[in-house]
């Protein structure tokens, strides 16, 4: 039989079969990714074939080719990677403008990484209830939404506390499998609990006393969204803030900033890095406010990292 992996507990996998039952499974066979050592050969979102020889433990015997997947380093010490999820339709980055502030650098790095993975990204701005009485904050909210929408990223403004915007968020999730991500404290767990009545992911108020903040092993889990007219699911990755940074090639960085890439076609030199070159259309657009300064700053910071990598590797 076939099914979808909905949970990865380290030693075993929970597979939701086509008939809708959840089956505990182990792996039979070798499913390593080429060239990368991973802690989990099978990932949440994988479409798998399962055999059920005896008892109630199944064996995953095959994985269907992945449409996409997101990996991150398992830890700073190990060279192994962890596959966060596979076969995603989109990723959703939950951010807050205040309490806590999500930096634009973090947002832009996340978006660039999603571009590199070719997974569409949606930005969810949570805790808008905290901004409503503050005109300056509202202006900032609208400016931030306008910026990212004008680049092409859907922006959904919500309050997990009051429920405002949740219907619009559900619209954005309809018929899709969406990975949720975000810095801790932005209300990601509260939001997922709101979307899936009955689910009780630990939120800050509950988990903070137990939270050591480090070394927490994280396992992705997929949840079906109820009351949707098309199958829709979200994947939670507890404890995972972003995807980590990919190693971008210096000349590739601009590919992952859609507006910079587009404008860059008009630069005098085709290999323009948009830093110092004469006839750079990107720097001109930044000066004219057609490209946002904060986006350009994020682009430069990723470019700098890729330079550092170069020197470290001794190229
Ligand atoms: P996570 O770390 O992203 O999963 O964040 P939590 O869901 O644990 O939420 C962090 C804190 O923010 C908790 O104290 C929540 O009650 C609070 N919170 C979550 N959503 C909202 C919201 O929309 N408005 C306000 N005012 N507080 C919120
Ligand atoms: Zn340029």
TrEMBL record:
Gene Ontology BP terms: ribosomal small subunit biogenesis
Residues given in the record as Zn(2+) binding sites: 267, 272, 274, 280
GO molecular function: GTP binding; GTPase activity; metal ion binding; rRNA binding
Intracellular or extracellular location(s): Cytoplasm
Cofactor binding mode and count: Binds 1 zinc ion per subunit.
Domain of life according to the entry: Bacteria
Top-tier EC class: hydrolase
Keywords of this entry: Cytoplasm, GTP-binding, Hydrolase, Metal-binding, Nucleotide-binding, Ribosome biogenesis, RNA-binding, rRNA-binding, Zinc
Gene3D superfamilies the UniProt entry points to: Nucleic acid-binding proteins, P-loop containing nucleotide triphosphate hydrolases, Probable gtpase engc, domain 3
Listed GO CC annotations: cytoplasm
EC code: 3.6.1.-
Ranges where the EngC GTPase domain occurs: 86-241
Cofactor section: Zn(2+)
Residues annotated as domain CP-type G: 77-243
Positions annotated to bind GTP: 126-129, 182-190
Family affiliation: Belongs to the TRAFAC class YlqF/YawG GTPase family. RsgA subfamily.
Subunit structure: Monomer. Associates with 30S ribosomal subunit, binds 16S rRNA.
Name listed for the protein in its UniProt record: Small ribosomal subunit biogenesis GTPase RsgA
Organism: Duncaniella muris
